[in-house]
Amino acid sequence: MTSSPSAGFRWPRVRLWTQLAAFAALGVILTHAAHLIIANRVTSRALAREQDVLGTSIARQIARQAVEPLLVDDIVALDTLVGGTVEGGRVAYCFILRGGRVVASSFPEGTPTELVGLLREGDQPVVVRSTVGRFLDVREPILGGAVGEVRIGLDLGILAATRRELAVTLGLLALAVIGVGIAAALVVGRRVARPVGEMLEAADRFDPASPQGTVRARGSLEFALLAERFNRMMVRLRVAHQEQERARAQSAATERMAALGTLVAGVAHEVNNPIAGMKACLRRLRTEDLPAESVDEYLELMEDGVDRVEHVMGRLLDFARPRPPKLESVMLEDLSREGATLLHPLLRRKSITLVQAGGEPGTLQVKADRKEIGQALLNLILNAVYVTPEGGEIRVRYVAREGQFGIAIEDDGPGIPAEVRDRVMDPFFSTKPEGDGTGLGLSVTRSIAEVHGGGLEFSFPEKGTIVTLWLKPATWPRVTADPAA
Amino acid sequence: MRRRSVIRFWASVALSLSAIGCTQVPYPEVAVDMTPPRAPPTVVRTASGKPPLRISVAAILSPQDTFSSYSRLFDLLGRRLGVPVQFVQRRTYSEVDDLLAAGKVDAALVCTGGYLDLLHRAPGAVAVLAVPVVGGRSTYHSLVIVPAGAEASSLADLAGKRFAFTDELSFSGHIYPSRLLKDLGHDPAHFFASTTFTRSHDRSIDAVARGLVDGAAVDSLVYEALAVREPALRERTRIIHQSPPYGVMPFVVSTQVAPPVREQLRDELLRLHLDPEAAPLLRDLHIDRFAPPEPGLYDAAAAVMGIPR
User: Fold this and answer.
1) Taking CB atoms and an 8 Å limit, are B64 and A127 in contact across chains?
2) Are A326 and A369 in contact (CB under 8 A)?
3) Which pTM does this prediction carry?
């Protein structure tokens, strides 16, 4: 199959019911046009034949009546005969020939010579076209032609008027039928296409996360089957979505545990210090006889230490405990600060500084699950800490673009080699040495971002990596409507 | 590709439908100038330039039957004479007589009654050229016929009935039965309940056969010829009276016709039965031949009419 130059042309897309209705209407119109044309032709032929039969019958009757007056030269009777013949109006002219000579004629000023000498094949009627009208000229021999012949002209104007009248009636009837046909086509078209429209609406409304009603199976057998398959497909999609969600939650939990492992060293230090202090206090309380003021002081120090441990453990537990997602309006800045709190020991140990390097921290409010986004940010900062050398700097920048707010983490690391950049977000892909990572960090982070209607974006400056977490604003117009505010 | 063929298909459907629809009256059409002719039609001249010989036949038969019976015979006669023949017909015997008397017809086969009347009205206007011989005789009869189922057995039984005469000048169809009624002591004008003149013998026979009248007086030659052609007529009618024989209808010529032409015409008539082409035509007319009239052939008829000879 070769493509023609006009292959680029495409019919404008129209709705299914319009198309069905148009085809049905076209069918009705064409059928009735054909009926009209064929009926007109059949009627015309029948009328013409009827005219011929009528003309022959009239002519034959006149020929019979003319025999005697013609034989006995009764010109008065002949004149009365031809005069009476044209009285009705259907016969436009009548004349009788004997030996090629007109012996009686309805033409008061003489019979036209051309009409008298009209040639024809046998006794076949001839249509006479003239300035005064069209006539079907019929010839009837008298006594087999031995005595003469009768000629009559039937006015075809009457035939044309009858045909017109008939055509108008048929035309009106056809128009009415076409009108009814188009209306029926529209109704049927809409009816046939309605199940498709309902399925389209259901597809648009479909949310795999929320349980929904099914599409009602109606219309023809095919549409009923389609609706049934469609409902089954939606069920499968919902199940698949739930499976995906479960897998994602599993991945997130795994990654969380991995992050927990990374945090444990710093946390241990954070817990050790107060525990060591408390231990010293206990030892002194046990071994020394201390005045009541000192005991109170030590007990306060111990209480303080327990509070610190409790706080740290609470944060850890909070991080590790799974709970259902809950979207709320939060400031991006708060999210990053909360994440950073858990990282302080680690940052301190590597002498890495976390600095805010730009943006307007007080303005970017997003719709997010505090814990999930906290984990996402933690993952990103942990990656940055991993690659940033001791004494280095990690820069946090708050950014905004059309419809999204973001938080960009920029590290001083060696950057991601160009050949693996496409794969960094694949699950179980990691550039870290074996045992240092699960390979799920970035894929989980991207999944969290996407669930929140955002995304993860990498850019690669000369040194280091910038990864930006984009999120949906809680109330976007508040920021864009009045940038000066 | 597919779209093009679909468009082509619909276009061809539309074209063929419109082609069918355009056909109207299925007859050839000719343009004709319908203005009236400037000059009145000229009088027809014969091809030879000779004036035609005008021959008539008294309407013993209907004009149609007369025409179909005699036109071919006269055409042949004309060819033998070398002149075209114009066949002139009239409804009544007297009209033919008038034409003969006025010289508007050259020759005619007239009824016995018409001939005798003409002799009486215009003596010397015509002369008998020949008489037809039918069944070996130059005489015929007047017959009174009734429907086959009628009870009448004589003319007297038809008193107060409907009766059909042929023509006022018809010897067998009017003159003879009227004379018979007078001889029987009846007044012909009041004997019948109603009378009608049918203008030809075949119509009178037909009227009786169909029961339109209760009786009619007809020419025996016509009755027999018709009975041969249509045997049912004989079955549906019955003869209740036959007249004595009278001289058959003569072929007369106007005395205004030049004598040599008259001679030539008589000769041709007398020799006509010898022409093989004429034989079947004469046979159709039940005429054996034409013969010279016997002297006194019409005396009996003249006596019935009260015309002195």
Assistant:
1) no
2) yes
3) 0.55
B17 vs A37, A125, A127: nearest CB:
A37
Here the CATH number for the domain that contains residue B104 is 3.40.190.10
Q: In which residue ranges of chain B is pLDDT below 70?
A: 1-3, 6, 9-25, 39-49
Domain boundary among B224, B243, B262: B243
**What is the length of chain A?**
485
- Best to test chain B binding among A107, A113, A166 (most B CBs inside 10 Å): A113
Query: Does some domain include residue B59?
Result: yes
How many domains does one find in chain A? 2
Residue B37 included in any domain: no
Inspect the interface and report whether the beta carbons of A99 and B44 lie closer than 8 Å.
yes
Taking contacts as CB-CB distances below 8 angstroms, the residues of chain A near B62 are 68
CATH number at residue A483: 3.30.565.10
Residues of B with CB under 8 A from a CB of A: 1, 10, 13, 17-18, 20-21, 23-37, 40-41, 44, 59, 62-64, 66-68, 71, 88-91, 95
Report strand pairing: B126-133 vs B85-88.
unpaired
β-pairing verdict for A133-142 and A126-130: antiparallel
* Cβ-based neighbours of B240, under 8 Å, separated by 6 or more: B144, B145, B146, B152, B153, B154, B155, B157, B215
Kindly state whether residue B175 falls inside one of the protein's structural domains.
Answer: yes
pLDDT value, residue A276: 77
Q: Which residue of B has its CA nearest to A5?
A: B1
* pLDDT at B150 (0 to 100): 93
- pLDDT value at residue A483: 39
* Predicted local confidence at residue B79, as pLDDT: 93
Report CB contact under 8 Å: B30, A128: yes
Q: Is B291 in the same domain as B200?
A: no
Same-domain pairing of B178 and B222:
yes
Position A215 in a domain = no
Cβ(A463)–Cβ(A394) below 8 Å: no
Q: From the first residue on, what is the mean pLDDT of each consecutive set of 10 residues in chain A (485 residues)?
A: 53 78 82 82 81 88 91 88 88 91 90 88 85 91 89 86 81 84 82 81 81 75 85 89 84 72 65 78 84 85 83 70 73 78 78 80 79 83 87 89 88 85 74 69 81 87 89 63 37
Alpha helices, DSSP H, located in B123-184:
176-183
Residue B105 sits in the same domain as residue B127: yes
Assess contact for B282 and B73: CB atoms under 8 A. Answer: yes
Q: What is the pLDDT of residue A327?
A: 82
Does residue A386 lie in a domain region?
Answer: yes
Residue A454 lies in a domain: yes
For residue A199, being part of any structural domain is answered with: no
Q: Which helix (H) or strand (E) holds A384?
A: helix A370-387
Mutate which: A3, A31, A72, A163, vs B, most B CBs within 10 A: A72
Q: Which residues are bridge partners to B90 per DSSP?
A: none
Q: Given this model, what pLDDT does residue A481 score? A: 36
Number of domains in chain B: 2
Tokens 């648009």, residue located: A204
Query: CA A133, CA A246: separation in Å to the nearest integer?
Result: 93
pLDDT for the residue numbered B18 = 54
- Which residues of A are less than 8 Å from B91 in CB distance? 68, 72, 74
The shortest C-alpha distance from A328 to chain B (Å) reads 57
Q: Which of A176, A198, A229 finishes a domain?
A: A176
Residue-number span of the structural domain to which A397 is assigned: 323-485
Does residue B148 sit in the same domain as residue B296?
no
- How far does A242 lie from chain B, in Å, by closest CA? 46
Together in a domain, B220 and B292: no
Nearest to B26 among A30, A45, A101 (CB): A45
Rounded Cα distance between A80 and A429, Å, is 119
* Shortest Cα–Cα distance, A128 to chain B (Å): 5
Domain assignment of residue B93, given as a range: 53-138+247-305
Domain boundary residue among A109, A142, A176?
A: A176
Pick B18's closest partner by Cβ from A37, A128, A131: A37
> What is the pLDDT, as a whole number, of residue A329?
86
